[in-house]
Fold this sequence. Notes:
By secondary structure, the chain is α/β, with parallel strands linked by helices.
Amino acid sequence: MTDSHQQILPPKRVAAIHDISGFGKCSLTVALPILSATGVETAAMPTALLSTHTGGIEGYTFLDTTDQMRPFTKHWKSLDLHFDAVYSGFLGSFEQIDIVKEFIDTFRSSDNLVVVDPVMADNGELYKVFDLNFARGMRSLCEKADLIVPNLTEAALLLEEPYKDGPYTKAYIEGLMKRLSGIGPKKIVLTGVFFDEAALGSATYDAQTGIVDYALVDKIPGYYHGTGDVFASALLGALLNGFSLGASAAIAVRFTQGSIARTYKEGTDLRFGVDFEHGFPDLLRDLKLV
Ligand code: PXL
């Protein structure tokens, strides 16, 4: 066999439960291309249909697709589908918290990974479409996850602790991750971690092994929209390619920072998302797929 990467197994399959924001590169419009690029098949369960995301763009349309989610679940179950991972993100209504829990219960198997990105807040503030009641609901969804990917604001909300501005200390970050694992998920990936103004990245904690890892890279000025989704999608792609939690986070940080660096150089509107598309060659090399 000359091609050492010749596929003999079908791709791993993810159920991605996020909104479709037509323009602006976040949620499904980044999860689908990134997971596909990593060789992972993705089934999409839309939680809402928007013209753009809600982060700083006025006048967006919003169609709540809650009523489609139980029928999607039922139909997929009737097809006897197996998902190697369930990956939820931005939810379109409070009721969807229960629907995603039911989805997890329906498709849970001994070998699959349930990833909940508790998308609801950033920079110390809840997104304007959510309230504290939603945050408590998100905490109850996180109880069912194997892995959660909060930023520092979401971590504080999940723990019902006051949000702290950085720079942070290792003691604070590691304490947060241990308390988050007390909610239920054994694997924690915290994003937006920094100990000084020069470097930014993620921290990971596996409560089963006690291993803590950091992946920090040079910080680029500006607030870039959709980077949480870019990061979490690349992280999941790396995990499903067999990389450890720490190695997967390092690959995802590099991919996200590369996307931010290109966007910074290109000078595009930061609300319109980051240039992740030109990062696939490097990502595939990091994943040893090429
Ligand atoms: O990237 C998070 C996200 C996803 N989906 C929608 C959003 C946001 C953040 O603002 O508005 C619709």
